[in-house]
Write the structure tokens for this entry.
Amino acid sequence: MVTWLNAGAAINTAHNMVSSDVSLAQATADQRIEQSKRAAEIETLKAQAEVQPLISLASQLSELKTTGEGALRAYVRNVRLGLFGNAQQVVLESKR
């Protein structure tokens, strides 16, 4: 009878150890899932932040186009002048 009790205790101990390992594995998996969800949220927010200025610019350009071709041409000319000014500044600074 002692052998049966020892066997029962060993089975119970093994069962408890397996249950503990399974719980730990489940907790680790749950943590990784949450980390993955958070990483996906962060990447989504980054993508939205990169796209938003483009959407805003497209909206502004569409609005300019509806006011007339002259307004859109003037906008493009001013943007080019700004870019040329920035390029000139970079060239001057690189010569120093």
The chain has a mean pLDDT of 90.
